[in-house]
Design a protein that fits this description.
The complex is a heterodimer. Chain A is mainly α. Chain A is built from 15 helices and 2 strands. Chain A has a domain of 203 residues. Classes of the chains: A mainly alpha, B mainly alpha. Chains A and B meet through helix 4, helix 5, helix 12 and helix 14 of A and helix 3, helix 4, helix 9 and helix 11 of B.
């Protein structure tokens, strides 16, 4: 029964991926550009869901990891002869190391400490970037010399491929025994510890994986955009968008984060005429979903099908 | 010497404001177990309404301040009844996860307040009219009288809070609820009523703090997240749920910020406090006066 269900789900996912891959055939460059950003956002949201949905930790600073990946890779590219792809991976590992150093003590604690540390980390990194404006570009942003591609279609496929691979890896991790332990920890930490699991170790592992994909996505995104700036990869407002995307799409589903991000970015384009009010509306929608449909869109439909 | 005095006066005022803002935040945590991440939103609502009434409608600073505090009271109850209470009673959200749901929901609620205010009033900073005009000389340092009034009012309010919590029956019940809500329920107190009362108290404290901050530094919807972050930091630094702890922490952070602003650079004023906070979490995560 479960085999049938997972295979039908797999077919659905493959169909959706194929449909997205065919979009460049009849969509304009503008639409593809919007979707390209949405796919990177999707990876941000999926990485966030790994912590929120499975490890039961609220990371208020996903942009700390994203910004670290983006700025380390961007600065390497701008000031050293290191090839672009290597810069991107170094950026991703910098996010893992920075994130782990920061989060390790916080993950040992219960309660809101992890959320606070991650929030403060973003504020510190933001200040540092402004202080060292000479090398980081400060408020204006850092121009990176290399880009992934100058054409729309390859950029679109890089982003799509990256999102699909990330989804597969994150989903695989979430469904693995480690993911189950994390889920158990999120629901009852003491019981999970009593069963002999090293909760902190597993949470740290999940955090590192989340950091890796966040940093990688941040680095790839700036090599798509051509600049790294506080407003696109670091600001608390970006972090809030990621949280909203993951909540809307569906907690504890991973893929929901990507759906939520695509919905949010596309809706943002449609709601652009109403300006400031669009952020209000989106936050309000996310709040309503969080309170009344806590499993999000995807979780809601999965539950209905399961009945 | 002169700089030292300026630091003392400015640090005193800022710290008094921080402690007032953090006191409400920590009481709510103690009694309801809620970290209200819309806290900055409540404070900014108070300041913006004070500006609207006093500045734009010309009703004078006192009516403005009163209206601002009233608006914060309404906002606090809205937070409780529209966001916190429904999550607490929801059957769809498992009990152990309510904490992270409340954190995320109040964050979103704060964003709604911020964006709503920005839509209504734009995000340009506005100056809330001062309560008192003029300049007073403090040990030879010319200080706006308004700043001294702010410091005085903040201390008066904290003093009243202390008297209330230690000398009145209702206040003692609130204190007891922050130590052990279940124990209080067993003694026959209606926890629901205490929640009602505590959220009102929170609205008053946050409102007074918001109006005073507005008269001192101006107000803007963009300040919502910064104010929340500083209250959150101070409360964790002092020990979650401990009012004396948050007062001490407010003074340490207030003075460190002022010293940095005067002696290093005003643009770095937030940085040392953030670093201190991270170090505290490494070394003594329960905070200065934490019970755990």
């Amino acid at each position: 029964m479960t085999g049938l269900l997972s295979s039908s789900r797999f077919r659905l996912a493959a169909g959706a991926a194929l449909a997205l891959a065919l979009l460049p055939l009849w969509m304009s460059g503008y639409v593809l550009g919007v979707l390209t950003v949405a796919y990177y956002f999707g990876v941000f949201a999926m990485s966030w869901d790994l912590l929120f949905g499975y490890a039961g930790e609220v990371n208020f600073g996903p942009t700390f990891l994203i910004g670290l990946g983006a700025y380390v890779s961007g600065m390497l590219n701008a000031y050293t002869p290191v090839p672009m792809w290597l810069c991107i991976f170094i950026g991703a590992f910098a996010a893992v190391i920075g994130g782990a150093l920061l989060a390790l003590p916080a993950l040992r604690l219960r309660g809101p400490y992890f959320g606070l540390v991650t929030l403060v980390a973003v504020l510190i990194l933001q200040q540092l970037i402004v202080i060292f404006a000479g090398v980081t570009g400060g408020e204006i942003g850092l121009a990176v010399p290399d880009v992934l591609s100058v054409h729309t279609d390859p950029n679109y496929y890089y982003a799509l491929g990256f999102m699909l691979i990330s989804a597969a890896v994150l989903l695989g991790f979430a469904r693995s025994p480690i993911g189950l332990i994390l889920e158990a920890t999120g629901q009852d930490r003491i019981a999970a510890e009593a069963l002999g699991f090293n909760v902190t170790k597993h949470k740290l592992l999940a955090f590192c994986l989340s950091a890796f994909f966040s940093g990688l996505a941040g680095a790839l995104m700036i090599f798509y955009l051509g600049t790294a700036s506080v407003g696109t990869v670091l600001d608390i407002a970006v972090a809030v968008q990621i949280i909203i995307a993951a909540v809307l799409g569906g907690r504890r589903t991973i893929v929901g984060g990507a759906l939520g991000a695509i919905f949010l970015i596309v809706a943002g384009e449609y709601l652009r005429p109403i300006g400031e009010l669009s952020n209000f509306a989106v936050a309000g929608l996310a709040l309503i979903v969080l309170m009344f449909v806590p499993d999000g869109f995807l979780g809601y439909f999965m539950r209905r099908r399961a009945r | 010497m002169r700089v030292l005095l300026e630091i003392l006066v400015d640090g005193f005022v800022i710290s008094a404001l921080y402690s007032l803002g953090a006191a409400g935040f920590t009481i709510i945590f103690g009694v309801s177990g809620v970290l209200n991440l819309a806290h900055g939103g409540v404070m900014v609502i108070a300041a913006m309404v004070a500006w609207l009434l006093a500045g734009r409608l010309g009703l004078g600073p006192y009516w403005g301040a009163l209206g601002g505090v009233g608006a914060a009271l309404v906002a606090a109850y809205a937070t409780y009844f529209a966001v916190v209470r429904p999550i607490g009673r929801s059957r769809r959200i498992p009990g152990v996860e309510k904490e992270i749901f409340v954190l995320t929901a109040t964050l979103l609620w704060g964003i709604m307040i911020q964006e709503g205010l920005a839509y209504l009033f734009t995000s340009n900073p506005v100056a809330v009219p001062r309560l008192v005009d003029g300049v007073t000389s403090v040990f030879g340092v010319n200080t706006p009288t308004n700043e001294l009034v702010i410091g005085g009012v903040a201390w008066l309010v904290i003093g009243l809070l202390w008297l209330f919590v230690t000398r009145t029956r209702l206040g003692k019940a609130v204190l007891a609820a922050s130590i052990n809500p279940r124990g209080l329920a067993l003694l026959g107190f209606d926890l629901e009523r205490i929640q009602w009362f505590v959220w009102g108290l929170y609205g008053l404290l946050a409102g007074i703090a918001g109006v005073l901050v507005g008269t001192f530094l101006g107000a803007s919807p963009d300040e919502v997240s910064g104010l929340t972050a500083s209250a959150f930091s101070i409360v964790v630094f002092g020990g979650l749920g401990s009012v004396p702890g948050s007062l001490v922490a407010a003074y340490i952070i207030g003075f460190v910020e002022t010293i940095t602003a005067y002696l290093v650079s005003p643009s770095l004023r937030n940085l040392p406090a953030l670093i201190i906070l991270i170090l505290v979490l490494y070394v003594r995560p329960q905070g200065l006066f934490g019970r755990r």
